[in-house]
Amino acid sequence: MDFNFNQLQAFVLAAKLGSFSQTARHMGKAQSVISGYIRDLEDDLNYQLFKRGHKIELTERGALLLKHVKKLVEDGEIFYERAMALHDTTQPSLHFGIDFSIYDAELFHVLRQYAEAFPHLALRLSPISSFEVKELMLEYDLDVALYFNHNETLPFNFSHLRQVPNRIIVGKNHPLAAQKEITRDLLAKHRQIVICSNLSRDAKGITVSPNAWEVDNYYYALSLVSHNVGFAIVPELLTDLDYEFTKSIIALNDDNLNFPDATLSLVWKDGLSELKHFNFLKEKICKAYSI
To answer: What is the pLDDT of residue 85?
Structure first.
């Protein structure tokens, strides 16, 4: 059998999107090309991967094979990204993703120092969700990210800076604000504002209530909490943000619930460690946020 990467990629995308035409648009190829990839793959395997119809569906064998092919495709994408990163290490630009919740004086002090030290560097800053770092670095041009790692192992270089407790926050007029003892059963009776990824329904923050509203950034969560719509579980750093609406928010005593901490981390692609400007930024970030 002689599989090629395009065939495997088309298989994974078609399974995800449920359509050869959508797969073709995503890969920038004609639908006939995608159909040919799948047909040739099925011919080599001597069994069908999809049931054809108004919407394609995986066969039982296709579903069993999919998880293995996903790993192969992901490894291939990582190889491509790393190979390209090493191709030209003199590129005077950087795409820096920063978690929505990290918005403090230390960050902007570091960025000012960076600007002064490298006045000709082209920097692109993108606010990101912590739950989308892997996809953004694999599928887009994100070079480095400062974010809260939710116990996920990423295939990149990283430095864990510090542990940040997750805290329950509510509006001052929310019913939970008057409770002396907070339990998981009590939380389950109230609406929770959960931070989640736009790219994956499965990537979301700590969830303890079956009644949940999902938002893709912390500022919507904080605003909803301040208006007593529900409670949220967020990194403690957010409770210190100096916004008008945060004056209406309090943190509850949740020490007995033992929520896992969030790990503030810096992650970056191969090749960046050879760049003087990146090492300068890394050193400043680590100094500002490490304990």
So the answer is: 52
Q: pTM score, two decimals?
A: 0.61
The C-alpha atoms of residue 176 and residue 287 are separated, in whole angstroms, by 38
228: alpha, beta or left, given left = phi > 0 and alpha = psi -120 to 50?
left
Closest alpha carbon to 73 in 190, 155, 195 = 155
Integer Cα distance of 119 and 290 in angstroms: 26
Cβ of 44: how many Cβ atoms within 10 Å? 12
> How far is the C-alpha of 55 from the C-alpha of 57, rounded, in Å?
6
Task: Give me 1's structure tokens.
Answer: 């059998």
Assess whether pLDDT exceeds 50 at residue 89: no
| 81 token code pair | 């990204």
DSSP, collapsed to helix, strand or coil, labels residue 26 as helix
Residues 6+ away with beta carbon under 8 Å from 38 = 7, 10, 11, 14, 20, 49, 50
- CB of 231 closer than 8 Å to CB of 170: yes
Contact of 213 with 191, CB cutoff 8 Å:
yes
Tokens of 246: 């945060």
Would you call 212 helix, strand, or coil by DSSP?
strand
Distance CA 153, CA 136 (A): 15
| CB contact set of 98 (below 8 Å; sequence gap of 6+) | 107, 125, 126, 127, 128, 145, 146, 147
pLDDT digits (tens, 9 = 90+) for 11-24: 999 999 999 999 99
Q: Model confidence over 241-263: pLDDT tens digits?
A: 666 777 889 999 888 888 888 88
In sequence order, what E strands does 129-271 have?
144-149, 157-164, 166-171, 192-195, 212-215, 231-235, 249-251, 262-268
Q: Which helix (H) or strand (E) holds 143?
A: none
Joined together, the tokens standing for residue 55 give 């919407």
